[in-house]
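lol ok so funny story. i was supposed to be doing the assay writeup but got distracted and ended up predicting the structure for this chain instead. priorities right. anyway since i did it might as well share w the group, maybe its usefull for someone
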Amino acid sequence: MAKYYRPANLADALAALASASGSAYPLAGGTDLLVGLRHRRIEPSLIVDLKGITDLPDPIEVTDAVVRIGPTLTMAALIANPTVRQWYPALVEAALTVGSVAIRNRASLIGNSCNASPAADTAGALLVHDASAIIASHDGNRTVAMDDFFLGPRRTLCGPGELVIRIDLPRPAPGSSSAFQRLTRRRGVDLATVSVAASVDRDHRVTLGLGAVGPRPLRAEFEPRGCNLDDGAALTQALEVAAPISDIRGSRKYRLATVRVLAKRAIRTAAQRRHDRKEAS
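and the output, tada:
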């Protein structure tokens, strides 16, 4: 039976995580953790509840250059924020596919990221938006790019005694936009069979964030010849990073075909949004 601790400040939370005998899990929204406990997929020695901590970063802070997201920001609040909707459409579209309305009202973006599922809906969008994680410990804070943060299934750079206290999203460069595409076996709360986030900048450079086609969320970039976003050869080369497996949600061959289709759709949607914004201005 796991022990439960509700600290009042970040220092106490870090001390508890560092001194636990066995595995310790932080609790924010709990939508992944509680399911794991119920099905005995995880058996921590300690659960550290973050909801009573008074000195955590604010749920969301918007500046001219960056949006800072704290551990308690829910998916629903992320989706509703007007700046997030304007600057990071791929992230909003990805967050809208996370679970059900009830889950999105409790699940946090940071918790979803720390769960480190290769099929996590928001992970690819964080990659294309050049997000970074701020990890706190008794030794201080360190900043890591989300592309380095994800190590493998349920493995991240956040180690024992550490806590992700913030995700930073830099403001997208002028003239860029993004989009998200996802395929599942059915509607509802099923994991993605394949997902793709794409961003297109003013020089037509494309960045992709790929989900469910490798042991971790994957990032790829390419520059089409000229303004030809349908450059099949460049896209093929970029997608060589994908290394999907066959499982109950789809075969390797099916996923390889699907990721290409979804990438094209996401790229075209992002490019159209970029064009519409340019026309509107």
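The domain at 177-280 is CATH 3.30.390.50 (Enolase-like; domain 1). The first helix runs from residue 10 to 19.
back to the writeup now i swear
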